[in-house]
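Re: that chain you flagged

S.,

Sorry for the slow reply, it's been a week of failed gels. I finally had a moment to sit down with the sequence you sent. For the record, here it is as I used it:
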Amino acid sequence: MNPARRREIFERFRAASPQPKSELVYRTPYELLVAVVLSAQATDKSVNLATKRLFEDFGSPDRMVKLGVKGLEDQIRTIGLFRTKAKNVIELSRLLLERFNGEVPRRREELETLPGVGRKTANVVLNVAFGEPTMAVDTHIFRVANRTGLAAGKDVLSVELKLLKTIPPEFLQHAHHWLILHGRYVCVARKPRCPECPIRDLCDFKGKTR
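Prediction finished late last night. Pasting the structure tokens below so you have them in one place:
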């Protein structure tokens, strides 16, 4: 894809949604971190339902640690893999208190030392909480990048690096949200909604729906 077409794609995304936001509900970097860890293989909607009361009562590392694994399990039973996630959240909360004075670190390498936090989760936190121009490639972004021709790649890391290299810098801060929301609601997996797609004339996908 040539640079002019790539730029036009993001110009259109920006025109349609100048300030895209995460669909996860949070108030602090810590709450965002917990929400993203809980969102693995779960919908943002299901996470928001579970965390609404959780964050009101236990929205800090020290209170979360006091809640404990069993207590957290009871709070998040409606979310898939809740037992593993409960262990990870309690342990990462303990480590935040032990290593980072209860604050969420702003470096990917430090974030990735926490249980349940991989590169994608770290990138989400850096981008959404701290405004870093990172690219958290999930299944939606991986699909959109390959399908449209924005960044073809066989794995998420190669797609991430290509997107970071080729997206014009002025679009990078919001590119993660534009692409994930496009993949979630328009460029869906089974039958993409090409007729209502704002970039259909710029997309390389040969199997466009009518």
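What I noticed first: DSSP finds ten helices and no strands in the chain.

Talk soon,
D.
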